[in-house]
Amino acid sequence: TAETRERLSAVDKALTGRPATTAAMVQIVDKQLYALAGGLYSDIVRRAGGRNVLDDTVPKGSNFAPLSAEALAKQNPDVLIYHYTGVADRAASEKWLRTHLAATAAVRSNRLIAVPAADFSELRAVDGTVTLAKSLHPDAF
User: CA 117 to CA 98: how far, in whole Å?
Assistant: First the structure.
């Protein structure tokens, strides 16, 4: 518990005074794009120095919902954070995002952050928070 608090406190300290980066956390399953927001997902993005632009797209009580590429493109986040479950999934997801969201600020500036889906469950969520913070604000660490 003490180590967890210490790690999260270090993230808070490093990000103090920095503006939040607009981000969208997504996952692609069977060629369907899903918004990951609410609950733990949005808490991690916020703690890591971001603002999940998909917070209002997921119904209350849920942590994910289908999302169209067009709806995500309208949000035009600075960063796309995408979950993957294996090497092949990671490559396919990145290709899908680059193809379908090429006009977004995130793709144009090459700010796609791949994160293992497992880093956002149970105590590994602390690992996910630290890793994401370093990716969103690399100059802070």
Answer: 20
